Amino acid sequence: MTDSLVTPKVPFCTIFLVVSTIVCNALVLLGNYWTADAFVEIGVSTKGWSKVGIGISDALIDELDEAMKNVSEEILVSLERVMGVQTELDNILSLVGNTTDSGISNSSALSLLDEHGPQKGMMLLQEMQGNITNHSALTTIIIKSVDEALDVIFDKVTMLLQELFETIKPTLIQIANWTNQFGDSVVKAIEEFSTTLDKAQKMFDQAMAQLATSGDNTDVMINNTFNLFDTEGVGSISVDSLISVGEYYAISALSGSKPYELIEKYDRDGDGVLDVDEYTFLVDDPDLTGVMGIVLRNYAKRLAEIAGAVGQATMRSEVASSTADYLRLVCAKNETKVGWIADRLSNNSLVGDFIGSVLVEMCIKNLDPNQPVYTDEDVGETVTTKMYEYNNTILDDMWVYIGNTSWWTDQGFNTQYQPSCAEMLVNWTLAAHEAAREGYPDLALVDVVAGVTLEEGVDKQKVMEAMPKAAFHLAQESVKLAKLEKLQVKKQKRSRMFSTRTGQMLLHRLQGGAMASRRADSEDSADSNAASQAIGGGTAALPTTLEFAKFLSYNATTTSSGYINDCTDYSGESSNSKDGFNSKIKGMLAKAVSFIETFQTYASAEGIAMIEEKFQNFTVNAVAEVKELIEERINGLIIEYEPQLEDSLHQAAYTTGEKIGTLIGSALSDPIAEALSGSIESALEDTIGEEAATEIADTLSDTLGSTISNFSAEYIGEYAGEILDGLIDQALESGGDILNNSLTKLKSAKLTPAQAKKLKAKGLSLSQQSSKRVELKHDLASISSLDAEIDALFASSNRQVMKARKAALYHERSEAGLSADLSSSWTDVYNLMTSFYNLIPQAVEVLKDAKEDVSTMASNLNSIFDSLEEKGPAIFDAVEMYWKIIWGVYFLFIMPFCVFTLYYGFWASGWFGGPQALSEDDVAPVPPTDFSGRVKTLCNSCCHCCKGFHDTHTCFWSVIILMQVMVLLTFLISIVLIIIAGVEFMMSSSCAAVYVVEDTDSCTQALETIQSWMATFSIDGNLLTNQTIGAACDEYSLLTCQMISTKLSSAAIYCAGFSFLASVFSLQMVFDSATLHEQAVCRRKAATLRLKAEGRF
Question: Measured between alpha carbons, how far is 676 from 7 in angstroms, rounded to an integer?
Fold first, then answer.
């Protein structure tokens, strides 16, 4: 047995355990290195997807926003040309009406019938006893005169229609392209892609938040957010401020009674508010975790949206609106920048129209409860006070604009806001004077606002206190007066243009009785407001205004980017959890689709062809339609009045018969009464007496005489009327033959130069027309054979002549290759112009909102993905480096213990000299003299301790405890690795849910969707084509999950499995160490016994 303790043995168990532990830990290290490589891949993919997001942003600006801007400008030009066409349509009808009625007034018969109607006109003709032989020829002559009038103006209308078509056709083609670009399938695909992009971005954010160190820039965040919490701008945070912050930024943790509890909890000095130091503790409250990041990121996001909107603005109204939004936002945080803008608005570097528009926009946004609010201060008052500090006359100068209703209309503002804004501006002016410690303004303000000069000595305070309400009522009256003036202009224009009967007839027949340009002249019309606002709001910004907009956009973009980077450093995320592209893209797509649907009828090849056809039909047929209506008008004077005249003549015949009967009855009444009186008196005298007989005879004779007279008058009158009526019928029938002969002669008749000159007269006033008629009546008296002319004029056979003329007109159109049936081309164009007039303002407003959504969404994408591209790869690269270092150090830490255990196993088994007998001689160590000596002494002492006291229980259990701590550490690390493995599996499984970052086909299909939606879509400046898009997913490392899933899965298996095995083997090594210790003790004892036996101990 002693020999077995002396002979060295190979510690196979120890070797197995040590090797297994080293191998397991090496595999764990390999798994962690794979995890680190996966982090690098995620960083690379983060950069790739950031480039995709930035590419989408650039395409939105370069293509979609630019196209919307062009369409908006073109559609406004189209609206102006539509209004021009409407005006010219009215001008044509007015001119033709005046020309026609002027021609009618040159015919004595037609003039009298037109002016006085059939009965009175007939009587006048009978009284004047003239002979009219040329009235039928006036139809041809008037039509010729109308031709001359149409030649002057119709070419202009045709040109306007052509210009309108050339302007609106490219717009409709673009909208038709958008119909495909925003089709149902495309919209659905884009919405799905936006959801996927959201998921991918959130996946990167979650990884960054878990891996990045956060909170390192707390001091910077406190400095950036304190002013945002101080909504009252007083340098401290009150309960009301916290309530406002909760409302402004939708923070549920600051609702209810929570603000009161927080102030009470962190108000250490008891003043009821929080200063900066107390605010530091507030933001660390467990219920407000990450609140600084939420508030500042929302502020930065809104700032980026404004930067995008103002940067892409080209119209004055757009720049003014964005400037007002910027001031309303920045006033919540940085009044220094408010001062910069106020200086630009007051130093005369910008035009007054723009400055006034900014003030009006701030006023209107103050009045709109749906506008976002970020401060409790009155932003308009703050801005105007700053403006007054820089230029104390600027506010008085602005009243010239804001107090002028015409200016409001020209700028495209709704005048219903003018009274409230006038009141608000006066209040701002008074506040500016008060802030400057100047007291109340001079009475000159009254002159500026009300145009009234007050004498010195009036109560200045009362006057100034009454000024805001006075400004309100003055502006209110100004708006009412402007509406009345426009209404009066409208009525006067209609009265002036359509005073003639023919003009009114044309207006009713072709346009339903409404002027085509009526809406343009009617301020009380909602359509008019929309059109005027659209045109006024479409005024192009001046170069100085655009330069200011670029400065503002650059400043806002830079500031927003800095804040977002601070938030990313603070929270480790590039966006808030509630931020998403999907909702924004859906909103933008909905507005774009709404705009497209507005023009759905016209924005297609068929719709464009329909418009062109209607314009061509108008050019070809409109003149013929007007001529036809003119002929109907002239012929109608004959046909319309014929039955009325016949009825009048028949009625006159019967009236004359009744008069004849009455005269005959009266003539018979007295003789009959006298004869009856004598006979009755003689018959009754003997019976009742002379006196009574006389009285009865007189009564009966009067009654019988009256009865006989009435009977005679009725009978004779009826008979006489029938006789006269028959004579009139004979006269009218014989007049038909005379009319046919007259028409045949008059068709070849030519006008005298004097008559032609009269027919060329255009636009006669009522007084001029009346004068012409008097002259014609005078001429009529010298014409003979009036009776024959009357018969010819009103003969029933004249209708056949009219039909013949109309048939000739149709034949003429057929010879020209035109349709025999006249189309309603005039009405078609009129309705088309009305439709455009109604649709375009609505479309402009919808397109304006959609364009703003595109700009803001592009800015958001840019800011978020810029931050993600800058911070993401750096974070993942840093994590990869630290991950490798940590696990490399851990492996190196484990290795010495494993090597020492292996060495100990061989030593305890008799190798390397093995355990030897301990000498009882205790030699004192030599004191060290230098550094190396000290190190040598330390090592010798440690070795002497282990060698000399190895066999003691204290040394054994000390080593065992140390090794158990190591095993425990290994076990804890294995638990951590198992958790990490779970996270890796989760990431791998979550990747599987985001197909676009997992599957090559899905990724390519997503890029193709974006490329088909926006042809300018590029990644890292490289335009995607059909040839390159297939390789883009691999080239830009977009297949994140495909890239990391294998590594993470393998790493999870290696880290979880082998770390657990390493812990088990390490524990077994502890057990094996106990065995080795006992073996070493026995070997030492055996060696001691051997030395004693040999006498050497």
Answer: 190
Please say whether the beta carbons of 991 and 1041 come within 8 A.
yes
Among 617, 598, 620, 599, residue whose Cα is nearest residue 608 = 599
pLDDT digits (tens, 9 = 90+) for 259-315: 999 999 998 888 889 999 999 999 888 888 888 988 998 899 899 989 989 998 999
3-state secondary structure at position 1019: strand
Nearest partner of 341 among 322, 360, 366, judged by Cα: 322
Tokens of 116: 């006085």
Question: Are 431 and 483 contacting, i.e. CB atoms less than 8 angstroms apart?
Answer: no
Return d(Cα 742, Cα 638) in angstroms, integer. 14
Contact between 737 and 124 (Cβ < 8 Å): no
Convert 1-13 into a string of H (helix), E (strand) and C (coil): CHHHHHCCCCCHH
Q: Is 945 exposed, middle or buried (0-12, 13-18, 19+ CB in 10 A)?
A: exposed
Tell me how far apart the alpha carbons of residues 1077 and 1070 are, in angstroms, rounded to a whole number: 11
Distance CA 787, CA 371 (A): 81
Q: Give me the pLDDT at residue 949, please.
A: 55
Instruction: For residue 20, report the phi and psi dihedrals to the nearest 5 degrees.
Output: -60, -40
Burial readout 1009-1045 (b: 16 or more C-beta within 10 A, e: otherwise): bbbebbebbbbeeeebeeeebbebbeebbbbbbbbbb
**Residues forming beta bridges with residue 1019, ordered by sequence position:** 1022
Instruction: Tell me which long-range contacts 709-715 makes (C-beta under 8 A, separation of at least 24).
Output: 709/665, 709/666, 709/668, 709/669, 709/672, 710/665, 711/665, 712/661, 712/664, 712/665, 712/668, 713/658, 713/661, 713/662, 713/663, 713/664, 713/665, 713/666, 714/661, 714/665, 715/661
The DSSP 8-state label assigned to residue 416 in this structure reads G
Ramachandran angles phi, psi of 1019, nearest 5°: -120, 120
E strands, 311-430, in order: none
Which tokens hold the place of 48?
Answer: 């790739």
pLDDT at residue 237, as a whole number: 92
- For residue 130, what are its two tokens? 């003239």
Angle among Cα 1065, 1071, 1072 to the nearest 5 degrees reads 85
Q: Quick check: helix, strand or coil at residue 237?
A: strand
Count CB neighbours of 101 within 10 A.
25
Give yes or no for a contact between 693 and 679, defined as CB atoms under 8 angstroms apart: no
Q: 293 near 212, Cβ under 8 Å?
A: no
Among 326-330, 699-703, 1015-1019, the least confident range = 699-703
pLDDT tens digits, residue range 987-1000? 555 555 555 666 78
Closest to 330 (Cα-Cα) out of 104, 556, 159: 556
- In angstroms, the CA 131 to CA 792 distance is 11
User: Phi/psi at 1027 (nearest 5 deg)?
Assistant: -85, -30
901, 1065 contact by CB (below 8 A)? no
**CA distances from residue 752 to 758, 769, 897 in whole angstroms, order as listed:** 10, 20, 133
Q: Are the C-beta atoms of 97 and 500 separated by less than 8 Å? A: yes
Phi/psi at 941 (nearest 5 deg)? -65, -45
Write out the H or E segment, with its range, that includes residue 396.
helix 394-402
3-state secondary structure of 196: helix
* DSSP string of 773-797, one letter each residue: HHHHHHHHTT---HHHHHHHHT-TT
> CA geometry: angle at 425 spanning 419 and 431, to 5°?
140
DSSP string covering 197-226: HHHHHHHHHHHHHHHS---TTHHHHHHHHH
Query: How far apart are the C-alpha atoms of 1046 and 992, rounded to whole Å?
Result: 12
Cβ proximity of 17 and 1068 under 8 Å = yes
CA torsion, points 219, 220, 223, 229, in degrees to nearest 10?
A: -90
What does the alpha-carbon distance between residue 72 and residue 312 come to, in Å, rounded to a whole number? Answer: 13
Residue 1047, helix vs strand vs coil: helix
- The dihedral built from the CA positions of residue 778, 782, 787 and 789, taken in this order, carries a sign that is negative
